[in-house]
Design goal:
Two copies of one chain form a homodimer. The first copy, chain A, is of the alpha/beta class. Chain A is built from twelve helices and 19 strands. Chain A is globular, with a radius of gyration of 21 Å. At the A-B interface, α7, β8, α8, α9 and β14 of A face α7, β8, α8, α9 and β14 of B.
């Protein structure tokens, strides 16, 4: 997507074919736009652990490139093993990180050490391209839903989203935001209600930043406001991302998603979940009972970071001193509240039957 | 209620019978507890306009005492008229402020000027006492609901509340928090989930402060978290306040209340609205259509105020630069989502019939 008219991905190798990889430093967003060159395994590992890069797909691709940087210096079996271990330890719970490292290792281990670095760069580039293509396809399919509403309505389409499921979390396009970018690029009149998404504010900070940078009209709202807007006909559809979907279509996503899905149902507003097939966990069925929810630091609730008048980025305590906070990071939206699932193969109902229509090869594994 | 073991109201006259009125400076909460003596009409007016005092009942009583301070210096007809005009202009949309001034004026105008100041102090004290008594009765009735759950459950009762409907908004006890204080004082094991309540954070700042100061166990959560907690059986009931209730039981309250009511309904959690009869607007019936919703400054969404590490209270921008924000301040919870209404006369269903059971004298005026 674009920032100030220039096309960016979230990660790209140097043009001389190696030696360094560039990423956008997301810890500085939205107040500063900085890119950082990663030249060593340790720099790549630090970029992941300090969340200069975040979002499951981007973490995976960054780990893949981190392995490339390591193999340039030491392509022995020990070098490969050590680099994989270093990178896997950066974010202990990131499933995609381990998946990406597993893919890389399987491709590289059989090769003679002298061929590993070049093969690693090729494989990492392929992973980045595949992620971008998957997200592009999600957007191409999802765009039709927006176009249908635009045709019926004749005026601007108001889309509500929660958290950041945009290109900053991926390599390009994003998941929930990809249909919106496609619609906007096609000249459809879209406007996005951006949920702030407390406590980490990824909506107000990242989604608003990337929509603004690409030129998509949008308005930030408190997470509390969406129900009221839906009651008054100001939301035409909701599109959110997903961290894990069960084989029955229950969707775990950033905390608060469930509340918006309830309001959408109560007001007849279509509610879509956008995700690649890789996000579907075919081994589970009941999301509320089977998906463990990460409890994160209370400090994310009690403190907030922002730009002070003097230009410094500061953290302030916003809660009563001495009061404790709890911070469950995700919730589960039951499939009954989801109008449809937007994937790289098309849109289907959020149900076992719907998902298997799109991914029939999973029929043997999908839990009922 | 108590702060550090000492009983406070939010406003009280000096013990020598006049000349000054003391209030808690709520602009300094939760980071500092300060009281301020108001000695003149202008100081009282400023306390209201700068929100040193806030909450409809407290604003009304502060205006009443402001009139006392004015009449001590000038009890002529012009003095009375001028002081009423000055006080009425402090918060142009506060219904309760105008109601309180109307009551005072009606009582004082017929008196000879020499008797007005003393009569004003007596009337203001009566208004304060009546508000405290109304809130005490709401709590006495609501406590039974909590006691029933405690008896059935045998362990601590988890109550979710939104925004601040506590004693800081009233003279004492509060509305939604009054049943909780009564239950806690009676030795029932209660724990309160305090919704942060973006964008103004009255939950994280004021509700958490007053519960903590009185010793009531509580935990602050992001507004997004309540649905997840209800899905997992961690909320036994919800009690919220109300800014305006229709004759049919629709409840306008701080933005986001509607989302919690939806989640409560979806999970079979009882959802109560606590309010004095004076909050019921018998002239309207359909809340979503008839209650205009105040749109407040976008700055409340884009900026947050808190305590920096150096001890200063600072404001920081938390949103992407250049992105706009919208800030609807209230939403309407339809009566169908409300389990019951807790009032000074008891608890009733949120319906015309239910409300008129408690307040039969309103039958002639209540819209259907």
């Amino acid at each position: 997507m674009k920032i100030g008219g220039v096309h960016y991905r979230t990660i790209w190798p140097s043009e001389d074919g190696g030696a360094a990889v560039c990423v956008i430093d997301q810890t500085k967003l939205p107040h500063e736009f900085n890119t950082v060159w990663l030249e060593t395994l340790d720099e790549a590992a630090r970029a992941i652990s300090t969340m200069q890069v975040r979002g499951a797909p981007l973490i995976g691709v960054t780990a893949a490139y981190g392995l490339c940087l390591a193999l340039t210096k030491n392509a022995s079996d020990e070098g490969l093993d050590g680099a994989c271990a270093t990178l896997a330890a950066t974010r202990p719970t990131a499933v995609n990180l381990r998946w990406a490292l597993g893919q890389m290792r399987a491709a590289l281990q059989p090769l003679p050490p002298a061929e590993r670095a070049a093969a690693a760069y090729a494989k990492a580039a392929q992973m980045a391209d595949e992620d971008a293509e998957t997200c592009r396809l999600i957007g191409q399919h999802g765009q039709k839903t927006i176009a249908d509403i635009a045709a019926r309505k004749g005026t601007r389409v108001n889309i509500l989203t929660h958290c950041n499921a945009g290109w900053l979390a991926c390599v390009d396009w994003g998941t929930a935001l990809s249909p919106i970018y496609h619609a906007h690029n096609a000249g459809l009149p879209v406007h996005v209600w951006v949920d702030e998404t407390r406590p980490r504010n990824q909506g107000a900070a990242l989604t608003a930043f990337e929509l603004g940078a690409h030129g998509v009209p949008h308005t930030i709202i408190a997470d509390n406001a969406g129900g009221h807007l839906m009651q008054h006909g100001q939301v035409d559809l909701c599109i959110v991302g997903c961290d894990r979907m069960t084989a029955m279509g229950d969707a775990a996503n950033k905390i608060g998603t469930y509340l918006k899905a309830l309001a959408a149902k109560d007001n007849g507003v279509p509610f879509y979940v956008a995700l690649p097939e890789s996000t579907i966990d075919w081994t589970i069925s009941d999301g509320v009972r089977e998906i463990p929810i990460e409890e994160r630091s209370p400090g994310e609730v009690t403190h907030m970071t922002g730009l002070a008048e003097n230009g410094e980025v500061l953290t302030v305590q916003v809660t009563a001193p001495g009061s404790h906070a709890a911070n469950p990071a995700f919730d589960v939206t039951p499939a009954r509240l989801v109008t449809g699932v937007m994937t790289e193969r098309g849109i289907a109902p959020a149900s076992r039957e719907g998902l298997l229509q799109l991914f029939p090869e999973r029929a043997d594994h999908a839990r009922a």
